[in-house]
Each structure stands twice: as C-alpha cells, then as structure tokens.
Amino acid sequence: MTDDEQIKAHFRAQDEQAPDFETMFKRAHAGTAHTSRLRQHAWPGLAAAALLLLVLGLQVFRQAPEPMPSGDDPMMRQLFASSHWRAPSDTLLKMSPTMNIWGVPTLPDVAPRPAEENQP
Amino acid sequence: MRSDDLPNNPNIPVAELMALHPAAFGWCRTLVGQRDDQAEDLLQHAYALVVSGEARFDGRSSLQTWLFGVLKNVARQQARRDKRWNPVVVDLETLVAEKADPPDRAQGISASINELPQRQREVLHLLVYRECTLEECARIIGISVGSVRTHYHRAKSTLQKRLKLGDEL
After folding, report:
1. Which of A2, A56, B135, B147 could form a cystine bridge with B143, CB 3.0-4.6 A?
2. Are A28 and B12 in contact (CB under 8 A)?
3. Using the beta-carbon criterion (under 8 Å), do A4 and B106 form an inter-chain contact?
4. Interface with B, mutate which of A2, A8, A14 (most B CBs under 10 A)
C-alpha cells in the first residue's frame, strides 16, 4: 500500500466508525419536535404566569400602608400644639432626677460621704 | 424512510443524506481531532439544524459541500465555546506508549496526520481523501483558495519531513 493510500485509509477508518444514521436522524427529529412542542406550549404558560405576577404586584402595591407621619409633619405638629398633651419624660424627670421615665431608679439613693472621711 | 421526512428542507433527498452519513462523520472526526463522542455530538447538532430548517439547503452547491460547510460552522462555534470552558486534556499514558514503542508505517502516518495543525488536517482530508476541488475546499472551510493551497503544501511538506514520504501526494 502506498503512502497516499495509507493516508486515504486513515480517513476511511474514520468514516467507518460512524454511528447508525437512522438513530441519529430520529433523535434529531425528536429533538426538533420536542423544541417545537416547548415553543407551542410554554409561551401561553409563561404569558399567564407573567400576567398573574403583574396583577399580584399591583394588588400589593395598592394595599401598601401609608407611610408613618414623621415629626416634621405640619399636620401632626398642629395637632400636638392644640392639645394639652406633654411628653411623659418632661414631668417624670422633674419629679425625680434619679428615675427614668418608667419610674425605675437609675442612681443609688445614697448620700455622699462627708469630705473629711475621704482624707487618709 | 419517507421522502417527506424533511419538510423544512425540501431540497435535501434523505437517501442522499444517508449516503453521506459516514463521510460526514469522518469529516466531524477530522474537525474535532479524533474524539468520537464530540464528533457524534457535532453531527447530531448539525442534523438537528438540518431537520429544523435552521440550516437550509438551496441547491447552489453539492449536498456534500453544503453539509460539510454546516459541520465546519457548528464545529467552529463549539470550539469557541469549549475554548472558554474546557481545559486541554493530555493523555499521558498514550504519549508514553507512543514514545516507548515506535509505531509501524500506517500508525505513523495516522499519528502524523493527527499531529498536523487543524487547518492543514482539514485541507488534507478534503483534497486528498474527498478529492474536492480547491474552490469547494475553500467554500467548506471558509478561507480563500490561496490559503487552501498554502495549507495543503505545508501539510504535505510536514508529512514528507516526518515520514520521508515519496512525492506521491
């Protein structure tokens, strides 16, 4: 066998290892059919899901609570000014400087020692 | 197999495609570098394109030229993808065995062909084995006729150097 023939034989050996045509062709058909089925059936489902999400999102957005009024709200400031309401901390702290606003003592109620006792 | 098996590609006679199947697989092997599984994947992908009509044959060239061109394009896309994600795997055992036992003439020719650069191997396959014209070869691979000629001469001189072939190519 000449070298030219051996080169051809090398490539021919590649051809001879080909898998079955029918199997591959059917698989290609099945793959295409599967893809087209997906295309046909998936789009309506995806569209319905997107619509549902949109409706739900709108509902949630509509039912969202109003934001809490901040201290700078002019309407709230007017409301406080017109009433007799005072902040509890104002009065409680005046009654006892050692109590916090809940009436709990924050400092020990002990008189300080005379200054001379502290001398060595 | 029925004649209406390819409604998206009515210009392709299925019997002719079936006759080309072994040659198409051999071409895939040349394109992917002797890896059977990748060659089969490549051919399967190309058949899917043919069946779906994404690759459409309009009869302007021979079916073989067109199919080989489709395979080359698919291989190019896959190679681009694999280059990004797959590391190059070297079979050390095969390399050691090849160094230890010098191959006979046929094995030596096969090994030398496999060691050629990709483009030279493709040109050799089409010109020597498939006996395509320079123009067909250029169209399939997507390069100029001049480049085909250059790659062919380089492949030939490399093989001659390695194997001390005669001037019969």
Report:
1. B147
2. no
3. no
4. A14
Helices B36-52 and A21-62, packing angle to 10 deg: 70
ipTM for the predicted complex: 0.76
Number of H helices, E strands in chain A: 4, 0
Other Cβ atoms within 10 Å of A23 Cβ, number = 10
Is there a contact between A32 and B165 if contact means CB atoms under 8 Å apart? no
Give the whole-angstrom CA distance, residue B85 versus residue A95.
76
CA distance A34 to A31: 5
Q: What is the pLDDT of residues B60-100, one digit of tens each?
A: 889 999 999 999 999 998 888 776 655 555 555 555 555 55
Could you report the per-residue pLDDT of A14-62, keeping only the tens digit for each? 888 888 898 888 888 887 666 666 666 778 888 899 999 999 888 877 7
